[in-house]
Amino acid sequence: MTKQTIRVELTSAKKPKPDPNQLAFGRVFTDHMFVMDYAADQGWFDPRIIPYQAVSLDPAAMVYHYGQTVFEGLKAYVTNSDQVLLFRPDKNMERLNKSNDRICIPQIDEEQVLEGLKQLIAIDKDWIPKAEGTSLYIRPFIIATEPFLGVAASHTYKLFIILSPVGSYYKEGIKPVKIAVESEFVRAVRGGTGNAKTAGNYASSLKAQQIAEERGFSQVLWLDGIKKKYIEEVGSMNIFFKINGEIITPMLNGSILEGITRNSVLNLLEHWGVPVTERKISVDEVIQAHKDGILEEAFGTGTAAVISPVGELIWQDENLIINHGETGEIAKKLYNTITGIQKGTEPDPFGWTTEVASLSESK
Ligand code: COI
């Protein structure tokens, strides 16, 4: 593919930056965004960085009707020496294309989009917060734009990258969250779209999520869609358990999202020599382990959630308090190591971070 130049139009009206100590998740957006178009006869074209703005689409645009859309989530961080780092961005580009394939969206040139992302971050780098637990969340997404009401794949698309300075995903911060194991609704089945990062998976999770919140839980833990027996994921994160010294996470089976933080955790645990297994794990096994006093820890992993300890699980009449509702040793070590690698305070043995800019360079 010939390299296309990224057109840049800078804003003349910069917005005020939020208080870095009061950041929620995903409420504030930076001054610029990356956009690129696709037409069947042109491929992806006109990559550009323009002022952050509303998007005008025909009301018949196919994304509004049949949800043909995919997205990604990654983060940028500032180190103590003012370098701007990205964490494994190539993995997000790779996964975006896997999701594209599942949802019949044309493949992107991963290097081209990554280049656009890096240039966008370099332009809006002053928006990256430095306070503990904060970062710049990056949301690439693609939508189907053809005005047509037939159920088919669109012939035109738009790709966007928007940036949001964020604090913790959960209101609990890094304190343990309470999770309800979902017994009625299901998120995905094998052969469905569960392993693609597409809006429909999240829309279909809302009902159970709402009910769980009304009962005082942060999120739901999904079970497999057929037997409602095996543990899958938490919707915004993958899940890990520590049982009798062994760390277990559900194996990738086609309906679970292939988390990049999940993969990083597996790599780190192996690197540390901690026994870790990817396999089927049933909710009954977790309950039995709790009864036997060997359910030592549970934690979720995700870009937004980072490492999120689970202090309590509820399943029908069973209420499982895990590790006295406290953060476990492994979750703490993983959180410190991963955020340390991301912020450049810990060694990066796998070469996961990429420098994209420096805050001390003038624009
Ligand atoms: C992420 O962790 O980046 C996600 O995409 C989860 C999300 C739904 C906030």
Topology (SSEs and partners):
Layout lengths: L6 E2 L23 E8 L3 E9 L10 H5 L2 E3 L2 E5 L4 E5 L1 H14 L7 H14 L11 E10 L11 E11 L10 E5 L17 H5 L2 H9 L4 E3 L16 E6 L2 E5 L9 H13 L3 E4 L3 H9 L3 E8 L3 E10 L2 E4 L7 H14 L10 E6 L5
The structure holds 2-OXO-4-methylpentanoic acid.
Considering the chains and any ligands shown, give keywords for the structure.
binds 2-OXO-4-methylpentanoic acid, 2 domains, alpha+beta, 8 helices, 23% helix, eight-stranded mixed β-sheet, globular, D-amino Acid Aminotransferase, Chain A, domain 1, 29% strand, nine-stranded mixed β-sheet, D-amino Acid Aminotransferase, Chain A, domain 2, 363 residues
Strand content: 25-35%
CATH architecture grouping of the largest domain? 2-Layer Sandwich
- The secondary-structure element order is EEEHEEEHHEEEHHEEEHEHEEEHE
How much helicity do the residues have? 10-25%
- The best one-word shape is globular
The average pLDDT is 95
Structural class: alpha+beta
- Remind me, CATH topology of the largest domain? D-amino Acid Aminotransferase, Chain A, domain 1
In short:
The protein is α+β, with helices and mostly antiparallel strands and 363 residues long. 23% of the residues lie in helices and 29% in strands.
Overview of the structural elements:
The chain is an alpha+beta fold and 363 residues long. The chain has two domains: 7-167 and 351-358, D-amino Acid Aminotransferase, Chain A, domain 1 (2-Layer Sandwich); 177-327, D-amino Acid Aminotransferase, subunit A, domain 2 (D-amino Acid Aminotransferase, Chain A, domain 2), CATH 3.20.10.10. Helices cover 23% and strands 29% of the residues. The chain contains eight helices and 17 strands. It has helices at residues 62-66, 89-102, 110-123, 199-203, 206-214, 260-272, 283-291, 329-342; strands spanning 7-8, 32-39, 43-51, 69-71, 74-78, 83-87, 135-144, 156-166, 177-181, 219-221, 238-243, 246-250, 276-279, 295-302, 306-315, 318-321, 353-358. Strands 1, 2, 3, 4, 5, 6, 7, 8 and 17 form a nine-stranded mixed sheet that branches. Strands 9, 10, 11, 12, 13, 14, 15 and 16 form an eight-stranded mixed sheet that branches. Helix 2 crosses helix 3. The longest helix has 14 residues, at 89-102. It is globular, with a radius of gyration of 21 Å. The two termini are 29 Å apart. The relative contact order is 0.15. The mean pLDDT is 95. 2-OXO-4-methylpentanoic acid binds at residues 73, 202, 236, 302-304. Residues 73, 202, 236, 302-304 line the site of 2-OXO-4-methylpentanoic acid.
